[in-house]
Amino acid sequence: MRMLGRHMVSGLQRHASRTLAGTGVKNQTTLASPDLKVESLVPGEPSGPRMVTDSIPGPVSQSRLKDLNQIQPSQSIQLFLDYDRSLGNYIVDVDGNQLLDVYTQISSMPLGYNHPNLLKLLDDPSIVKAFINRPALGAFPGADWPERLSNSLMAVAPPGLKTITTMACGSCSNENAYKQIFMWYRSKQRGHDNFSQEELDSCMINQEPGSPQLSLLSFHGAFHGRTMGCLTTTHSKAIHKLDVPAMDWPIARFPLYKYPLEEHTRENQEEDRKCLEEVEDLIHQYNAKGMPVAGIVIEPIQAEGGDNHGSNEFFQQLQAIAKRNGAAFLIDEVQTGGGPTGKYWCHEHFDLPEAPDIVTFSKKMLTGGYYMKDEFRPSHGYRIYNTWMGEPSKIIVLEEVIKVVKRDNLLENTKNVGEILMQGIHALEDKYPQHINSTRGKGTFIAFNGKDPATRDKIVGNLKAAGIHSGGCGEQAVRLRPALIFQPHHAEIFLDKLETVLGQL
Amino acid sequence: MRMLGRHMVSGLQRHASRTLAGTGVKNQTTLASPDLKVESLVPGEPSGPRMVTDSIPGPVSQSRLKDLNQIQPSQSIQLFLDYDRSLGNYIVDVDGNQLLDVYTQISSMPLGYNHPNLLKLLDDPSIVKAFINRPALGAFPGADWPERLSNSLMAVAPPGLKTITTMACGSCSNENAYKQIFMWYRSKQRGHDNFSQEELDSCMINQEPGSPQLSLLSFHGAFHGRTMGCLTTTHSKAIHKLDVPAMDWPIARFPLYKYPLEEHTRENQEEDRKCLEEVEDLIHQYNAKGMPVAGIVIEPIQAEGGDNHGSNEFFQQLQAIAKRNGAAFLIDEVQTGGGPTGKYWCHEHFDLPEAPDIVTFSKKMLTGGYYMKDEFRPSHGYRIYNTWMGEPSKIIVLEEVIKVVKRDNLLENTKNVGEILMQGIHALEDKYPQHINSTRGKGTFIAFNGKDPATRDKIVGNLKAAGIHSGGCGEQAVRLRPALIFQPHHAEIFLDKLETVLGQL
């Protein structure tokens, strides 16, 4: 394994001194921790960013973009990457620029790039075959499917949830979980699942009672995907929703806190109270107008909407409201699940008195799907179904990811490095309050605001030019979504570059 | 390569004599064709089915099912397969039964199982890396993405369609194509895409004008997927739709023909006329009630709904109606695309005066996605987007599939073997008119009806017990969805077993 070079060490020293120069509320124990690793978890990882083009995207990326745009709408393309040369926490683009990646394909690479354990998987011929023999999993799974599921998704299931359905992506996970909620709700209403002929006939033409007037309550700022059911519950950016028909379902306010939290306890508690009151009001209102609320869907941290956090008390009381009103409580962990908050599932931080009814996932879990309470199991076959229902090769890779997470204590690593990042960014917030504020996070799932949208864009752009690949979310947040192998020395590089960027604004 | 054994040859002879004993309308040139291959396109393929358990599913499948059901709702599971031992057109289940597969994971295995060319792909380290480094394709594609797309999806693009969007599955393909239609329609209505503040604000709360009242016209019996937008246009089976809210969109009758076609020309033309009339009526009706029809979505053959075919004239006139009414014309080739009809795209059979506006695909194409006319390109980035937008490793495998299809003339093979199947099933229909009827198909995309649902179920079940894995669709159809490597000698085995099953009913 490679030892840290001089650059790293000096970076660590700079960080320590900056932290000490901060408000004094942060402590430096993390830096002094004996757990602090200075060796990269991925052997051969570069020692830092290296930019070779004057601006980014460089000329090769720009030329590829021209080619691609001939055949595919390409307005959202940022960079073309050389995935063969990318390694660990570092991406290499087609111009040879090497960037520290704290965005990781929108938070979907648990072990970064070309992790040796995942590469080694492909030495097994039986696993190679899994990549080219894709089954219709809902009808003809492979011999090892039950065992694979047990060793992967079930090995990290949220406490209290013992039933799984796999899907191919986040949107399909939410869409099908929503359907599962509607089926559960109607089944409760009917008291049984012996469908009447009227129900069977009317649903075929999208009419009641077979296609019932039911709703899901979602939150302003939420993002649950872009297929039409999900999109109805998504309210993060207009450009995602504009021109697409949507259902009239209730939308409540998600708490928007003032930071630092410890200085605004009273206002933030009041914010919780108002939001919860609105939830309950909307449920009554929609029940009364004949479109009952079958479920509440919420992210544990609103990610695309700007990394908005809710308090433990907010989530506890929201679950109680759902229960009291006979609505299912779905937590969408597509972006938060799989470890970035320092626990496998973000909602584990909330001390909920019981498990959520459904937890959906994708991204870092490599496969989509959802966990659910047993009472949500459909009473008949083919109610929740599609051709592929996910893919075994993803589960094989996930199984290995979970092994590495355990072996390398990556949740603990994420918790520790998250503290270093939070300390460092807080210190920078204190130093540059005119540029950034509202640092917030759990584990390495961290964001801070630029003072306005233009400042945020400038920070993300200048970070990229300096060799740090981050992302924006919401109106003015910079978000960090590093891999679980992001270590203290990577955090140090990030903080170092961020300080430079802020100093030059 | 293995030569056909005696069993095969005698099978071919039996088929020839059965064909001759038929109605006389079939000819036997296909059998005499010099193209008739008697060597398997996949070396080492078994010479025929081999059943080793008394009933199917056997005891090992049943025991696995018990395990799986502990953690996953499993009512739809039919068999557990040993994908390592499956080869070419043959599946092997966990009990050691070896079946000829004419269903191929619901029509999604273009080259069957463990095709040597696909296995060989994994020898390339750069391709191995593509399996574990999944990019966010809409933002950070790999260096080779434009070229890979050109060599795969664009190499077999439907004539007239030059723009592609990739997606992960069939449902996501349709959902996003639907959104693309709504955006296109509103853009035309507005005359520009400078969105007003009112549009931007109202869409965030699912209200007009930002979330407009628009509809898509679909057909009774259609299947376009199970996410909530798709499900609104799906009308094949109640169990798929029941209890899920749906939008009030127009549904027209899809032609249901009498077979044999040549004996019912007049009635079937009348059927076309009535269905087309209803389409136009519904468009006017929905336009008048303030929910304009932005598009018509249709399968070229209604697959899940029972393999219902429409005439070329029906599709030509339907396209004309769409055009006349300013509605987009979307052909959903999720099940028909990729070669099974003897052309890459089923709609190529229809002699349409111009390309459809959008063609969606998945299954045999290995990746989901859609082709579209350039005028459907979104005017802004991030309007059609998600984290993964498909997957490069699928495109790599598809590129190889397309090479093999070309090298081995698999479209021609499919056309030829489809004729053999059609002739053979027609002959059996003549022999057993009390059991089966209405044989129909294009290429090997073939179905016939059992005289009632129970007979159909019996035929599918008895075929399975005899070592043929087929599927049902609609109320009473048996459907064939073999791979593109399904050859005359496989057809012969199928016909042989089908004859036995029908003779014993």
What does this structure look like?
The structure is a homodimer of 505-residue chains. By secondary structure, chain A is α/β, with parallel strands linked by helices. Chain A folds into 2 domains: 6-117 and 410-503, Aspartate Aminotransferase, domain 1 (Alpha-Beta Complex); 155-189 and 211-390, 3-Layer(aba) Sandwich (Aspartate Aminotransferase, domain 2). Chain A has helices spanning 6-20, 29-32, 59-71, 104-107, 116-121, 125-132, 145-151, 170-190, 197-203, 228-232, 238-241, 265-288, 312-324, 392-407, 410-431, 453-465, 488-503; strands spanning 90-92, 98-101, 163-167, 215-219, 251-252, 293-298, 301-302, 308-309, 328-332, 358-361, 368-372, 436-442, 445-450, 468-469, 471-473, 477-480. In chain A, the strands form 4 sheets. Chain A has a 7-stranded mixed beta sheet, sandwiched between helices. In chain A, helix 1 packs across helix 15. Chain A is globular, with a radius of gyration of 23 Å. At the A-B interface, helix 3, helix 5, helix 6, helix 7 and strand 3 of A face helix 3, helix 5, helix 6, helix 7 and strand 3 of B.
